[in-house]
Request: fold
Amino acid sequence: MGLKLIMNLWIFVCALGGSFYGFYWFYRPKKALFLKMITGGVSCLMLTELFMVIYMVTQGDIEPGFQVGMLGIIGSFMFLLSANYGQMDGLVDNRSKELMPTRLKAFAAPAVIILLYVLFCFLVDSAEVRI
Reply:
């Protein structure tokens, strides 16, 4: 339970910071819709992790099966994989060279996730937990 609690707490803190940042900068008039949608997705993830942390602290380890906190993950995917995101992205990104640095920065998040997963694999011996 200790490592899972630390990981969920760390994800919660990062998602909380991302939510505050998004609400502060992107929920203003005349800001792009897809930035608001990303903020909504991160906020749903933050609520999921908040549920997981509170559940682990009060009840112990998470039991397999459906948990109410999983609704936040579903909401996150609804925000992030929405058709409006692709439509707005196509309207904003005109494939010009001046936006190339922004497109390259977008690869940072998947790279960090892969790096954290590899690090996690070295810390945990159980194949079930790794999967």
Q: What stands out?
A: The helical segments are 2-26, 33-59, 70-80, 83-92, 100-105, 108-123, 127-130.
